[in-house]
Amino acid sequence: MKKILLAVFAVFACSSLAVTQSQRLAYVDSETILAQLQEAQDAKAAVDDAVKQWQDELDKMGKDLDSSVQDYQNKSALYSPQKKDDEQKRLSDMQQKIRELQLKRQQDAAQLRDTKFQPIRTKVLKAIEGVAKEEGFTFVFDKLNQTVLLFADVKYDLTFKVIDRLKRGTTAKTK
Q1: With the CA atoms of 27, 28, 29 and 30 taken in that order, what torsion angle do they form, in degrees rounded to the nearest 10?
Q2: In this predicted model, what pLDDT tens digit does every residue of 1-17 receive, in sequence order?
Q3: Is residue 9 part of a domain?
Q4: pLDDT digits (tens, 9 = 90+) for 38-65
């Protein structure tokens, strides 16, 4: 019985060793790839410009609110109780409107970022897949996600091959 268990264990150990040896791992640095890709730089600039415009709009609304609050504080002693209540409600409504717009702009920014970068991500992933298949790699990790990749030997870095593929605009070579 012990010999049978030992034989089964040996078979599993050998088969898992063979599977492990047949799997090749590599990695890319997506941050470097995107920094080298003009499309990504253009998309980032477009998103940054829109976000800056939205932030300027929110800043102006915030300054208007601050000015209105200051004006209220300066004049509130002269207001009737009804006028005070009306002004406080108006200021509260202004503040709520700013919060709602801020939340909407955050959602708009996330949506714009997704819209601009989705075609780029697809293109980069196809290039990574092509290089990985040509080079015979089973798995390709992203160096940027350091919770997954704890160590990487530079000889398995496909980053610049992927950049080259993206800049040349070629597809995978057929063998």
Answers
A1: -130
A2: 444 433 344 444 444 44
A3: no
A4: 999 999 999 999 999 999 999 999 999 9
Question: Is residue 52 in a domain?
Answer: yes
Positive or negative torsion for Cα 36, 40, 46, 51:
negative
Pairwise CA distance, residues 157 & 161, whole Å: 8
CA atoms within 13 A of residue 79's CA, in its CB half-sphere: 14
Q: How far apart are CA 103 and CA 75, in angstroms?
A: 32
Q: What is the pTM of this model?
A: 0.70
Q: Over the chain, what HEC string results? A: CHHHHHHHHHHHHHHHHHHHHHCCEEEECHHHHHHHCHHHHHHHHHHHHHHHHHHHHHHHHHHHHHHHHHHHHHHHHHCCHHHHHHHHHHHHHHHHHHHHHHHHHHHHHHHHHHHHHHHHHHHHHHHHHHHHHHHCCCEEEECCCCCCCCCCCHHHECHHHHHHHHHHCCCCCCC
Sign of the Cα torsion 133, 135, 139, 143 reads negative
Range of the domain at 67: 24-168
Structure token digits, residue 71: 């004006």
